[in-house]
Amino acid sequence: MYPANSTTNSSAGVTKLENIYYLFETMEEIGLPLLIHGEVTDPDVDVFDREAVFIERHLNPLLEKFPSMRVVLEHITTEEAVQYIQENQANLAATITPHHLHINRNALFLEGLRSDFYCLPVAKRENHRLALRRAATSGEPCFFLGTDSAPHIREFKESSCGCAGIFNAMNAIESYAQAFDEEGALDKLESFASEFGPAFYGLPVNEKRITLIRKPHIVPSRFEISNKDTSENYIVPFHAGEKLNWSFEPSNVN
Q1: Of the candidates 223, 94, 191, 202, the residue with the CA atom closest to the CA atom of residue 148
Q2: Considering only CA atoms, which of 178, 176, 158, 145 is closest in space to residue 222?
Q3: 3-class SS of residue 178
């Protein structure tokens, strides 16, 4: 569920939660999880506070009214969200993206305005990034993988729109592995990536396996998306031009 105007292409989202309480009643009754982009869009609320305000203003009252409804707060970005999830994890869980484990809000302004790091929810202060790392690597089943990968071509990233979104799908698992490795928690990666999510949704764990090896590689700086020789028809991936210390071995999927 997207609150109206909370992210790219969400103008037709929900304007008032009370308008769809009848849906929440049914979801609670049948055990259907609510997956939610947890931010307010009130222009009077600072963009860096919108997640915390959403929890206080909307999520907490929602769970009080529907205490048995199962909820996933998608792509959390704040210490407040981590704490709230931990305190209410009987029916509440959260996903964490790879990019929010690696960048804080300074990345948006490194040597200029960096649209490649603009996403919604926006990256927050360093203390929030560290809280997300602790949560992801904690081994608590209420936190699991969610990439929120959102590719936009250069034409739309560097424009009056400045579309929100980071393309991380091509190297998401390697990015997670690097963060977990840096935290000394590689033993927690498989559960975070492959087990906790299915457990919350009541789904079987995927029986296929992949192999990650400690083999450094440089992430491509761009991906062309058409045969046109233009300056704007490409996508910049997360970690563009950076070295990742882990590599995915696709031939070993079984």
Answers
A1: 94
A2: 158
A3: helix
Active site residues: 148
Residue 97 is part of a domain; what is its CATH number? 3.20.20.140
244 within a domain of the structure (yes/no): no
45-66 confidence digits (pLDDT tens): 999 999 999 999 999 999 999 9
State whether the Cα torsion 34-40-41-47 is positive or negative: negative
Q: Enter the tokens of residue 200.
A: 């919350």
Q: Are 81 and 106 in contact (CB under 8 A)?
A: no
Asked if residue 246 is part of any domain, the answer here is: no
Domain count, the chain: 1
Write down the pLDDT at residue 5.
53
Beta bridge partners of 89: none
Q: Which residues of the chain have pLDDT under 70?
A: 1-15, 227-231, 250-254
The whole-model pTM stands at: 0.92
DSSP E strands in the chain: the ranges are: 34-37, 71-74, 92-96, 143-145, 211-213, 217-218, 223-224, 234-235, 243-244, 247-249
Residue 81 lies in a domain: yes
Structural domain harbouring 47 = 17-210
